[in-house]
Design brief:
- 27% of the residues lie in helices and 33% in strands.
- It is of the alpha+beta class and 398 residues long.
- The strands form three sheets. Strands 1, 2, 3, 4, 5, 6, 9 and 15 form an eight-stranded mixed beta sheet that branches.
- A hairpin with a 2-residue loop joins strand 3 and strand 4.
- The structure holds coenzyme A (COA).
- Coenzyme A binds next to helix 1, strand 4, helix 3 and helix 4.
- One of its GO terms (biological process) is aminoglycoside antibiotic catabolic process.
- Keywords: Transferase.
- One of its GO terms (molecular function) is aminoglycoside N-acetyltransferase activity.
């Protein structure tokens, strides 16, 4: 039967939910209309049908991602799901190709996602491009933390906090490569805590909002065990606010046993508790990025102001053919341009350019692995200078 792809309609909501549950859940959760209407708008959900039946779906969040101190418009692909009996015949690939075209039309020059299945996305031009540094620690390790200096108050979040929380998220994320910039519909519930299911707290000092903690609990394995805490957001403008929020977690010891939280190596926590107490959480997520519009992506990010470089590239992109061919990459005075033409000396696939673009991959390593070819030492050094920076990471999951 012929496969057709279209955007979702209002009467598809329940069927799309059911398909997601079939693909991802051990026990299907009931459809929640209010929750569904608070998620992606219908024109950002794509579905594949065979006759009347929906056999595949995905959604694209309207987001941004910070690279070089600038907000790059990003489409966040999530919830890619195909009915079990329709798998292995190109349904997901067809949906993904359509999503790439739609993102290009909307000016979302890059796309990122959290892969369950690297192969599907790697084949379609995404490549591993950053970490989601989720760590687990025994809650007891937080109990000896010092009290914060100065006067920081902590209280539950309210709806009225949302604008200040969004500002706080932008402020702490913009200098962190790979961090997200939330779009308008990236749920209030994620930032305030889902009432009745999660807890949300803000830190305040001198009448100003200085931190946010959103956390959920998971049941103990048996009725004598501890519950565990998963931190969904931990934002703080200074150490005092971070300590004040960590105390909210520590105060749950010993009823809660462990806490899982996203913490990059450069954050305060490893030094505060001692690095040996933090263990990578077992899911080991990374994120993958695709350059949807390579020229647009190069122009959108920031670069170190003292880097000047020119590299003649040849890009291969069989899925988004507008990116294919020889291009000259020029970077000067903090701005980058990618223009068609030139000698096409350095040959690489679009996914490899994505992993360089975010600062995740080293050009020397890619060349050693034969994934970048034709580059001489000057080309590799130039690519290294252009994309160098701290390792990209993300604090949000979607
Ligand atoms: C992953 C999923 C969406 C793939 O859907 P699909 O329609 O079968 O995918 P396609 O037929 O377009 O596959 C394209 C390529 O992806 C790769 N791929 C697809 N499913 C795979 C799997 N389960 N394991 C490894 N590789 C896989 C294959 O290389 C495949 O090409 P090939 O068949 O020529 O070898 C589907 O299996 C699914 O819904 N799984 C459960 C939910 C899930 O994991 N979603 C992804 C979330 S990030």
């Amino acid at each position: 039967m012929a496969l057709q792809v279209r955007t979702a309609r209002d009467d598809d909501r329940q069927a799309l939910h059911d398909l997601s549950q079939l693909a991802f859940a051990a026990r299907p959760a009931p459809y929640d209309d209010a929750n569904d209407r608070g998620a992606n708008p219908l024109d950002r959900r794509l579905l594949a049908t065979e006759g009347e039946r929906i056999v595949g779906r995905l959604a694209v969040w309207e987001l941004g991602q910070w690279f070089g101190g600038r907000r790059v418009p990003m489409g966040g692909v999530s919830g890619v799901a195909v009915a079990p009996d329709a798998r292995g015949r190109g349904v997901a690939s067809t949906l993904v190709h359509e999503a790439i075209r739609a993102m290009r039309d909307r000016g979302e020059v890059v796309s990122s996602l959290y892969p369950m299945n690297h192969t599907l996305y790697r084949r379609n031009g995404w490549e591993v491009a950053g970490s989601y540094p989720e760590q687990r620690l025994d809650l007891r390790a937080l109990t000896p933390l010092p009290r914060p200096d100065g006067q920081v108050d902590v209280r539950p979040t309210t709806e009225a906090d949302l604008p200040a929380i969004r500002e706080l998220h932008e402020a702490v994320s913009r200098e962190e490569p790979g961090n997200l910039s939330h779009g308008p519909e990236f749920g209030a519930r994620r930032l305030l805590g889902h009432p009745g299911i999660q807890e949300g707290y803000v830190a305040e000092a001198n009448g100003r909002l200085t931190g946010l903690l959103v956390a959920s609990r998971t049941d103990p394995a048996d009725d004598r065990g501890f519950y565990t805490i998963t931190v969904l957001q931990l934002l703080a403008v200074d150490l005092a606010s971070e300590l004040a929020l960590l105390r909210v977690l520590a105060a749950q010891y010993p009823v809660a046993g462990t806490v899982t939280l996203v913490t990059p190596p450069q954050s305060a926590l490893p030094m505060l508790v001692g690095e040996r107490d933090l263990r990578p959480a077992d899911r080991g997520w990374c994120w993958m990025t695709r350059l949807v519009d390579a020229a647009g992506a190069i122009a959108a990010r920031g670069y170190a102001p003292d880097v000047t470089a020119e590299v003649h590239l040849h890009l291969d992109d069989p899925v988004a053919r507008w990116n294919t061919g020889p291009h000259v990459l020029r970077v000067k005075d903090g701005a980058g341009h990618l223009e068609p033409g030139g000698r096409g000396d350095v040959r690489l696939g679009i996914g490899r350019l994505a992993s360089l673009y975010t600062g995740w991959a080293s050009p020397h390593r890619l060349a050693r692995l034969g994934l970048v070819t034709g580059a001489d030492a000057a080309d590799l050094a130039a690519l290294d200078r252009v994309f160098a920076g701290r390792l990209p990471w993300s604090r949000d999951f979607f």
